[in-house]
């Protein structure tokens, strides 16, 4: 957000304009780092300034920023939510940027109702002045894979009814997603036209109250664009009118720090061209919601969204079940997968007599067992891995591990306990997967830099970057689609050992061509999983992988001294290769990076 120069410039211009017009007593609600207050304090003619934030950490950062800029004596800073302020004075201008992807999720309606009644002068103004919400229907497999079951192979193998599973998060509320990034991966399509669904005037107290108490709603009718499309849900974004001249938008076609709000259906609904869809949008009690009659009324089992993402990874499902299908006549199997479908398949086919698995999806396990005449007496649900250690040694014929989690990290618990689990395996027993490799490439990506650290000359001038340095990201997890450019080939960085011990692997990563240091941003990495020694590896860099890619962020300090001294390298310093050291310890992966200049 701090790196969004369009957003920042628009707020700055609106604040300067209103102060110049005489609205020169300013209260900044939810000040964060103090950026909007800094804009106000730099204006000629400002008479009074105050700021508040409910976060102790952010108030301390704002205090440090004001002090570093010599402004501590010109602003009153409160660690308090605005509704709890007891300051006995009013202001002519209130500025706030307490909006989430669905506009109202950070409580802006309640905040502004209280501010209009207790903190703003009768003739005062609020920035932003108005918000206009838009809605459209969409189709996207990526967004659907975490919400409903769409893996036909799994459904067929276990004779499940269609549309039988739903994420626990389901249709209760909205998620925040960057639609622009998903579109860039060709996995998002608008199914309907786009219409205005709601307009809220932040300077009109009656309007705020009507939307907050639910007496005013937005009635919407969407028109489907073509035949043969599937409606997976609705996407909502907004235009924010700051004042009479300045506006910003969270439209997915713009480069904005905001994501869009996603409302999912509990089914994939076929639609026809010119079909009309009626919706009612509400923000009662500050919670944006969409009411409609498009959801399935069938009974559905609720499971965690990560379990659904795992089940919907078709290639992983095929690789794991094929890796175990040749095994037979097994007494006991331990399946530690997010969902133990391989173990259940072995039970169903009579190749195993007892399955031990975690109880994290107990309802679904019981449902699948009942659908396939698998006796629940042959399934032992355990609450934790510690319960497995009660088994006698040399008991298990097969251990199925979950080597990588949905965020793109190795499963540290499984790795740390691997040696203890191995003691429970028969001498001729099998462990699946049999190997794991870490692969990666050097990339350039403005997006990943903006999400990881402050890269904004204006904020550096205010010294905000200095006080946010401790919050910089070193390892960016759970990466969906995003824009980047490879600066090197993808290579194996390390073999990941199945234990909790310390391992260190050094490697020289040669760039494809000499590259300016300022463009070398991260090492994008994923895993290659070997289910059996004789099968091809399966990567987690696939578009439909349940496990996302991650990135080691290369700190700016990496390139200090590349010119032969301890000073930062110039913007034009050329990097030819990186020295990397991958450390694995207690199931945690870390990458230390050093550079070599031309």
TrEMBL record:
Q: Which SUPFAM superfamilies match?
A: S-adenosyl-L-methionine-dependent methyltransferases (SSF53335)
Give a GO cellular-component term.
Answer: nucleus
An example molecular function term from Gene Ontology annotations: histone methyltransferase activity
Q: Which InterPro entries match?
A: Arg_MeTrfase, PRMT_dom, SAM-dependent_MTases_sf
Print the keywords alphabetically: Methyltransferase, S-adenosyl-L-methionine, Transferase
In this chain the Protein arginine N-methyltransferase domain maps to 220-287
**Annotated Pfam families:** PrmA, PRMT_C
Q: Which Gene3D superfamilies match?
A: Hnrnp arginine n-methyltransferase1 (2.70.160.11), Vaccinia Virus protein VP39 (3.40.50.150)
A biological process (GO) of this protein is: methylation
Q: Which PANTHER family does the record match to this protein?
A: PROTEIN ARGININE N-METHYLTRANSFERASE, PROTEIN ARGININE N-METHYLTRANSFERASE 9
Q: What is this protein called?
A: Protein arginine N-methyltransferase domain-containing protein
Give the species this sequence originates from: Anopheles maculatus
């Amino acid at each position: 957000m701090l790196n969004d120069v369009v957003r920042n410039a628009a707020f700055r211009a609106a604040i300067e304009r209103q102060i110049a017009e005489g609205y020169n007593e300013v209260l900044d609600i939810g000040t964060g780092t103090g950026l909007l207050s800094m804009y106000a304090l730099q204006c000629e003619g400002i008479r009074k300034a105050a700021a508040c934030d409910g976060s102790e950490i952010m108030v301390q950062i704002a205090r440090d920023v004001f002090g570093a800029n010599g402004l501590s004596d010109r602003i009153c800073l409160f660690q308090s939510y605005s509704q709890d302020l007891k300051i006995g004075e009013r202001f002519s201008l209130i500025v706030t940027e307490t909006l989430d992807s669905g506009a109202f999720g950070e409580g802006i309606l309640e905040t502004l109702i209280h501010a209009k009644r207790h903190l703003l002068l009768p003739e005062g103004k609020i920035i932003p002045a108005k918000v206009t919400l838009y809605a459209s229907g969409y189709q996207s497999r990526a967004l659907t894979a975490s919400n409903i079951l769409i893996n036909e192979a799994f459904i067929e193998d276990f004779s499940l009814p269609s549309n039988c599973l739903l994420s626990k998060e389901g249709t209760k509320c909205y998620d925040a997603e960057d639609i622009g990034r998903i579109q860039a991966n060709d996995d998002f399509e608008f199914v309907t036209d786009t219409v205005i669904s709601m307009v809220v005037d932040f300077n009109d107290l009656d309007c705020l109250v009507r939307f907050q108490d639910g007496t005013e709603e937005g009635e919407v009718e969407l028109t489907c664009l073509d035949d043969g499309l599937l409606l997976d849900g609705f996407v909502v974004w907004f235009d924010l009118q700051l004042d009479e001249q300045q506006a910003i938008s969270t439209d997915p076609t713009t480069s904005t720090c905001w994501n869009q709000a996603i409302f999912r259906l509990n089914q994939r609904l076929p639609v026809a061209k010119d079909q009309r869809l009626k919706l009612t949008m509400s923000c009662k009690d500050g919670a944006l919601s969409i009411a409609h009659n498009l959801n399935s009324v069938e009974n559905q089992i609720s499971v965690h969204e990560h379990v659904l993402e795992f089940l919907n990874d078709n290639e992983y499902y095929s690789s794991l079940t094929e890796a175990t299908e040749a095994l037979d006549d097994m007494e006991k199997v331990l399946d530690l997968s997010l969902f133990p479908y391989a173990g259940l398949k072995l039970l169903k086919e009579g190749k195993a007599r007892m399955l031990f698995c975690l109880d994290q999806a107990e309802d679904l396990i019981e449902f699948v067992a009942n659908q396939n005449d698998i006796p629940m007496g042959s399934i032992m649900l355990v609450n934790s891995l510690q319960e497995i250690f009660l088994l006698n040694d040399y008991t298990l014929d097969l251990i199925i591990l979950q080597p990588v989690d949905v965020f793109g990290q190795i499963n540290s618990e499984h790795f740390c306990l691997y040696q203890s689990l191995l003691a429970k395996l028969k001498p001729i027993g099998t462990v699946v997967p049999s190997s794991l490799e870490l692969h990666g490439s050097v990339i350039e990506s403005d997006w990943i830099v903006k999400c990881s650290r402050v890269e904004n000359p204006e904020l550096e001038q205010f010294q905000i970057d200095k006080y946010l340095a401790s919050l910089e990201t070193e390892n960016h997890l759970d990466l969906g689609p995003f824009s980047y450019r490879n600066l090197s080939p993808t290579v194996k960085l390390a073999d990941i050992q199945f234990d909790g011990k310390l391992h260190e692997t050094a490697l020289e990563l040669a760039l494809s061509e000499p590259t300016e240091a300022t463009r070398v941003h991260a090492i994008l990495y994923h895993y290659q999983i070997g289910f059996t020694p004789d099968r091809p590896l399966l990567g987690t860099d696939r578009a439909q992988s349940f496990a996302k890619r991650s990135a080691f962020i290369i700190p700016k300090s990496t390139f200090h001294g590349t010119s032969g001294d301890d000073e930062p390298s110039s913007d034009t310093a050329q990097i030819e290769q990186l020295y990397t050291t991958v450390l694995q310890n207690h199931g945690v992966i870390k990458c230390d990076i050093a550079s070599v200049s031309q």
